[in-house]
Write a structure and sequence with these properties.
- The complex is a heterodimer of chains A (669) and B (326).
- By secondary structure, chain A is of the alpha/beta class.
- Chain A contains 19 helices and 34 strands.
- Chain A folds into five domains: 131 residues, Rossmann fold, CATH 3.40.50; 141 residues, FAD/NAD(P)-binding domain; 62 residues, no CATH class; 164 residues, FAD/NAD(P)-binding domain (3-Layer(bba) Sandwich); 60 residues, 2-Layer Sandwich (Alpha-Beta Plaits).
- Chain A is 29% helix and 24% strand.
- In chain A, the strands form twelve sheets. A five-stranded parallel β-sheet of chain A has the order 10-7-6-18-29. A five-stranded parallel β-sheet of chain A has the order 20-27-21-22-23. Chain A has a four-stranded parallel β-sheet with strand order 2-1-3-4, sandwiched between helices.
- Chain A starts with 6 loop residues before the first strand and ends in a 9-residue tail after the last helix.
- Chain B starts with a helix and ends in a 27-residue tail after the last helix.
- In chain B, strands 1, 2, 3, 4 and 5 form a five-stranded mixed β-sheet that branches.
- Chain B has one domain.
- In chain B, strand 7 and strand 8 form a beta hairpin.
- The relative contact order of chain B is 0.13.
- Classes of the chains: A alpha/beta (669), B alpha/beta (326).
- The interface between A and B is medium-sized, with 24 and 25 residues.
């Protein structure tokens, strides 16, 4: 020891936040008399530069070696004041914050009681501060690679940006091709660019980029580690097609015994494919994949005398012996861009989506309108002789959005605009069509959005305010039962086709990602950002960022913007090259540790292991200081008190408890 | 219970090359007490005994053996220790295995089915001032004593430890050999002490414990008799930081008993050795059983049954009950 403790106590008014309820002058006078306190001051805003200046000045002039700041929660300003100490040449861990705002002035009304509590809180902090040890933060190198989860436009853009900056990217996509939702769209609002035309060059760029490793038809299995050093296991599902040999000629799909008999999930079941398939013609990678749930050879063990795909494949790419492969990757950052699901309209049975073939979703209409879709771009209902072109078409908006009864309160943001776009495209494809849109509100905030909405209305699309209560059949037509709420008129609108503008919702398997990455979700089920305004791309887990519709419903421009933001955040971490890890980690007293392993079991970060101790000739706990997050769970579990967390040792806490539990109203210590 | 069969089996065990020594119960030298016996020589098995007087839990000695705990990796195989275990004792060994206090490979368990052990307080009242060593046994569900040249038969309810009256595991749950026949589970009396106590007002409960903790002399006999209280350096005896002061008074005594009870939550196998060791009759099992019940009712966990189960206090399930968190 040797060095005498000289503590400085700094009481903050926080404007009137603290000073209106707590007598800060009284607390300061009281603190000045506490053991080992050399000086005590109060100031209106301790976090302001002059406030911090007081502390710096006293450290230099009075040789203070422990600082107590009585102000707000350490969550808010601990880092601020740690920096203050550092600037004055004091170890930043010689700081203790007494929270007299959130835990005192904000929760009490009685001035004398609050002042007494503030006194005790400060006294306890001073008692603890005396025992604090100077700590050093360790630095570890950052793995110069990023894992991007999801190969939609968000993931592709993010991967391109990170790779363009010179770092390796692993782009993981669960489907056989990257492209995501955007690949399914026909045109994009409000400019009516062909979705595929602007997307596919990016897909090709991503696949061809020397620093992007594309892991399509793959899923995340396990993640461990921490910001800068994540270890990731990815399962590359067997395609049963040798990617190096497959030329993408498509002979196999044409000859497949199930050709034209398997519903295509890319076309939402409207079109049909073979058991060996490529989701869409521009798929990247272009290799074919065998659907293991459908392929006769894989499900039944035989496919005629020999599988025709094997017979026709001249490069010999079909390989039924292929097995899933698990690859281990090391990355410094992870970007989650897993996208969203679409609301399933059968959850609103009154709209008859399951019952009537001519009630379709907006995404199904996208596929019908798409030149590469199942109808090659013509809007036709039914097949063969029943095929007809719809004339009267109704759109219903907010299906599964802003709807408490359907369990989704949020606005899906994109439906107003895609409805306007689809109405416009239908008008082009079906000349003379009569199109009406049933809506609650029209939300067209975005560059050029209002203008586009206006244009569509001028083209003759009728917007009728009202939420249809029911859709039923009358003859061969459908009736939309609705009240026009602007005219206060009940309507029964007879139409040929109803398009449901379904909302976006969190992925059904988002829970898996949450568990693996230790993320949180907001009430709507989407992944939760670290701060809704100031950290919208970050998550509560350092080194993991969000991009696109997995965080909230988003259109393409917003998604791309967020993807670029996520890339920039990841690059910030990677380009620093090194990352500081916490200093308030746990340490083991080997002498008393008997190696029971409770700490190993309880550590949520896998930071503790048992290792043979030469000195004590048995196993004792060993903490990996880089993995340790300083949560203290192991220290709480240890019976013998052998596991202690730096800055939160038993003596630190007991010294606080002793003061807080002492008699008197803070007037004695 | 055939004592000769048990001794013969113990002799066989001791003749084995891999067994170093055997821990058993020996005839005592005073009243109703037996003494732990450490035998290396198969010729000395006649000194072993097993009777209702064998109330101490011999598992307590396993963790004292320095290198039984946390075996060295790659260390040469060491001699095994044989130990006689009652049902409850075997549960303590299982719990020690779970928390890596002992190495199963180094143990050889001689299972001793048991029909209950006497409560020293109860027998002292029946036979006050007995100094000469007493012999005892079980006969047709009752307990017999040979003292002062006489045979006295008493029903179990009158002399057995309260915990033995509703014992759930009279036969060892883990044993390498079981020389004698298993005994039948019989519940002589349902134990209602915890639920009865819970019905009292909190003021009355505190009044009760105040009186009890005031009588405690902090001799640590309970801790030393407990097979699951075996840290080599007890947290509660450390001077820095001092969780407890050394003074024997209500505050420090209460803190000692509460800390010990919490350390045993989900670990205590309810053998009752602590209560039998207490010279001032502190009802220690009332605390331990209350916590055991909480653990069982909230988490469905019972310690000392499965050597492969994770330790209760270091395991959690996402759906664990947590309504007590404010």
């Amino acid at each position: 020891m040797g060095i005498k403790t000289k503590t400085g106590v700094y009481v903050c008014h926080c404007g009137s936040n603290i000073a209106a309820t707590v007598d800060v002058e009284d607390v300061t006078t009281f603190a000045a008399r506490l053991p080992h306190v050399k000086t005590a001051r109060h100031y209106p805003y301790m976090c302001s530069d002059p406030g911090q200046g007081l502390i710096r000045q006293d450290i230099r002039d009075k040789g203070l070696n422990r600082i107590v700041v009585a102000a707000c929660s350490p969550r808010i300003h601990e880092n601020t004041f740690r920096r203050t100490l550092e600037e004055a040449g004091l170890n930043p861990y010689c700081l203790e914050m007494a929270n007299i705002r959130e835990q005192c002035s904000w929760v009490h009304g009685d001035r004398s009681g609050a002042t007494a509590k503030a006194r005790k809180t400060v006294a306890a902090a001073a008692a603890r501060a005396r025992l604090l040890e100077p700590l050093q933060q360790k630095e570890v190198p950052v793995e110069p690679a990023v894992l991007v989860l999801g190969g939609g436009i968000a993931g592709i853009q993010c991967a391109l940006d990170v790779a363009g900056a010179g770092f390796t990217v692993y782009l993981v996509e669960k489907e056989p091709s990257i492209g995501g939702r955007m690949a399914q769209l026909d045109k994009t609002f409000p400019t009516l660019d062909c979705s595929a035309c602007i997307l596919t060059p990016r897909m090709v760029d991503a696949a061809a980029h020397p620093r992007i490793e594309l892991l399509s038809y793959s899923c995340l299995e396990e993640v461990s580690g921490y910001a800068g050093n994540f270890s990731v296991r990815v399962r590359k599902k067997a395609r049963y097609v040798d990617a190096d040999r497959c030329t993408g000629c498509g002979d196999c799909a044409r000859e497949c015994r199930l050709a034209g008999r398997v519903p295509s999930s890319f076309d939402l079941g409207l079109g049909r494919r073979s058991a060996i398939y490529r989701p869409f013609p521009q798929a990247v990678p272009a290799h074919y994949t065998i659907d293991r749930q459908r392929c006769l050879f894989l499900t039944k063990g035989r496919c005629g005398d020999a599988p025709p795909c094997v017979q026709v494949c001249s490069p010999g790419a079909i390989d039924f012996e292929q097995r899933d492969e698990v690859v281990e990757l090391k990355v410094g950052a992870i970007v989650v861009a897993t996208g969203c699901d679409l609301f399933d309209p059968s959850r609103k049975p009154e709209y008859g989506y399951r019952d009537y073939n001519n009630v379709i979703t907006a995404m199904e209409l996208e596929r019908l309108l798409s030149a590469s879709g199942p109808t090659e771009g013509s809007v036709v209902l039914g097949e063969g002789e029943d095929a007809s072109v719809p004339r009267d078409i109704a759109f219903i908006k907010c299906v599964g959005s802003r709807d408490k009864s359907a369990g989704s309160e949020h606005c899906s943001k994109v439906c107003c605009m895609y409805t306007a776009k689809l109405a416009h495209l239908l008008g082009e494809k079906v000349p003379g069509a009569s199109i009406r849109v049933y809506y609650m509100d029209v939300r067209a905030s975005g560059k050029g959005y209002e203008e586009f909405y206006d244009r569509v209305r001028r083209e003759g699309v009728r917007y009728i305010r009202g939420s249809p209560s029911e859709i039923f059949q009358r003859g061969s037509r459908l009736v939309v039962k609705v009240e026009d709420t602007l005219a206060s008129t009940p309507l029964e609108d007879e139409v040929d086709m109803v398009v449901l503008a379904v909302g976006l919702e969190a992925r059904g398997d988002a829970g898996r990602i949450v568990d693996m990455l230790r993320l949180s979700r907001s009430a709507d089920g989407f992944f939760l950002e670290a701060h809704p305004k100031l950290a919208p791309v970050d998550t509560a887990v350092d080194g993991i960022y969000l991009a696109g519709a997995c965080q909230a419903p988003k259109d393409i421009p917003d998604t791309v913007a967020q993807a670029k933001a996520a890339a920039a955040s990841a690059l910030g971490l990677l380009s620093a090259g090194r990352i500081k890890v916490g200093a308030e980690v746990c340490v083991v007293n080997e002498e008393t540790c008997r190696g029971c392993g409770y700490c190993v079991q309880i550590c949520p970060y896998g930071a503790v292991e048992l290792a043979f101790s030469e000195r004590y000739s048995h196993e004792t706990a060993l903490v990996n200081e880089v993995l340790c997050k300083g949560c203290g769970a192991c220290a709480a579990a240890c019976f013998s008190g052998s596991m202690q967390q730096r800055s939160f040792r038993d003596e630190h806490i007991l010294s606080q408890v002793a003061v807080l539990g002492s008699k008197g109203k803070g007037d004695q210590v | 219970m055939d004592l000769e069969k048990l001794r013969a089996a113990a002799g066989n065990v001791l003749s084995r090359d891999d067994i170093g020594y055997l821990i058993g119960w020996g005839v005592g030298s005073y009243g109703f007490r037996t003494a732990p016996l450490f035998l290396r020589d198969a010729g000395e098995v006649h000194r072993l005994t097993f009777s209702p007087l064998c109330g101490s839990n011999l598992a307590v000695f396993l963790t004292m053996e320095y290198d039984v705990a946390a075996p060295a990796k790659g260390a040469a195989a060491k001699e095994r220790i044989a130990v006689m275990v009652k049902g409850c004792d075997s549960r303590a060994v299982v719990q020690q295995i779970v928390e890596r206090g002992v190495d199963r490979e180094r143990l050889f368990l001689v299972g001793c089915p048991c029909e209950g052990v006497v409560d020293p307080g109860k027998v002292e009242k029946k036979f006050p001032g007995t100094v000469e060593p007493v012999r005892a046994g079980w006969e047709n569900g009752a307990v017999v004593f040979w003292t002062g040249g006489q045979k006295v038969t008493l029903p179990g309810e009158e002399v057995l430890s309260a915990g033995c009256l509703d014992c759930s595991h009279p036969n060892p749950v883990l044993a390498d050999i079981m020389p004698c026949e298993e005994v039948k589970l019989r519940r002589l009396a349902a134990r209602e002490d915890v639920s009865m106590f819970e019905q009292k007002s909190s003021a009355d409960r505190w009044l009760y414990w105040k009186r009890i903790f005031n009588t405690c002399i902090r001799c640590y006999a309970c801790r030393n008799a407990c097979p699951l209280c075996y840290c080599s350096d007890c947290l509660l005896e450390r001077l820095s930081p001092a969780w407890l002061f050394r003074s024997v008074n209500l505050s420090e005594n209460a803190a000692f008993h509460l800390a010990r009870a919490f350390h045993l939550a989900g670990r205590c196998v309810e053998c009752g050795a602590c209560e039998r060791a207490c010279p001032v009759e502190v009802p220690l099992m009332l605390l331990n059983r209350k916590l055991a019940r909480e653990v069982y009712e909230r988490y469905g966990f019972q310690p000392g049954l499965d050597p492969d189960s994770p330790p209760f206090q270091a395991a959690f399930r996402p759906d664990d009950s947590e309504e007590f968190i404010l």
